[in-house]
Task: structure prediction
Amino acid sequence: MTGTVPTVELGDGLEVSGIGFGGMALSHVYGRTDPQEALRTLHHAVDRGVTFIDTADVYGEPREGTDGPAGTNEELIAQLLAGRRDEVRLATKFGITGRIGVSSAAAVRGDRAYVRASCEASLRRLGIDVIDLYYMHRRRLDIPIEETVGAMAELVAEGKVRHLGLSEVTATELRAAAAVHPIAAVQSEWSIWSRDVEAHVVPAAREVGAGFVPYSPLGRGFLTGALSPDRVAGGMLREQPRFTEHFDANQQVVDVLRDVGAQVGATPAQVALAWLWAQGASLGLPVVPIPGTRSAQRVTENADALAVRLSQDQKSRLDAAVDLVHGGRALTFTAKEWISAGRE
Result:
């Protein structure tokens, strides 16, 4: 039976399910996954009504002898789309030419030729004719953003892309991009413990009429309370002090989520997601988080968070949890310019 998740309009008329699914969770960055199990999780998400699926050309197991975008996550999702294209709003991205999780990830292109070639490659891997939402994953800083977005706009005019999005852009970059073509969504990290985007990027998104798509809304698993030091040591997170030397101190944030969850009958993950929706409402823009998971059970848990309601007192207590956070959100294998806060 197909579940029901309310739809939300982001920007530029793009309607998506009120919660999405982050495909990177099914990739090698957090350890290997059984492809068939991953596909079952994707089908369960759509069955449950989580029909906004997010991927990128760079997600997936790198091919032997290559350093460029892997494309294997798109190929996995293509198996879902083969029989359910009409049910899914599909987002993918271009721009990162290196490998996620290693120093070469910082390599980025945004020139017209690369934008077009990347789109064609993604369409081919996904087995589709049009991408619902096409993101610039990261900006090449020596190329004007107007040039990159102009090339993306050509893809819309040609019917290969329906809507445009930008990831980890500054407020200034977002305004410049929106002057070239409507921006449906901004995707950046945003959660109860990563709130830097609220200072400049969120107000700019509201100003230009873009919705916000928070990635890592559950703090890469930390905010669920289920992440262990052993799991941290085995993957990309071992490079981030927030998850290593500050692991114990940051449990205070999880404790707040647990306490509020006990009051409303919800898990820490559900409270963290409910906070994001409440924060979006208070700041005046649509918010559609895209938590990733390998577990069908977690998909259901996350979708059920849409029913959680927070009182103002509970919301205020969750707001204050940011003061308990130790360590920043930047990935240590890249320069500070990799995220919008490093360029604001």
Notes: The beta strands are 7-9, 15-17, 20-22, 52-54, 89-94, 131-136, 161-167, 185-189, 211-215. The longest strand covers residues 161-167. The mean pLDDT is 92. Residues 268-283 form the longest helix (16 residues).
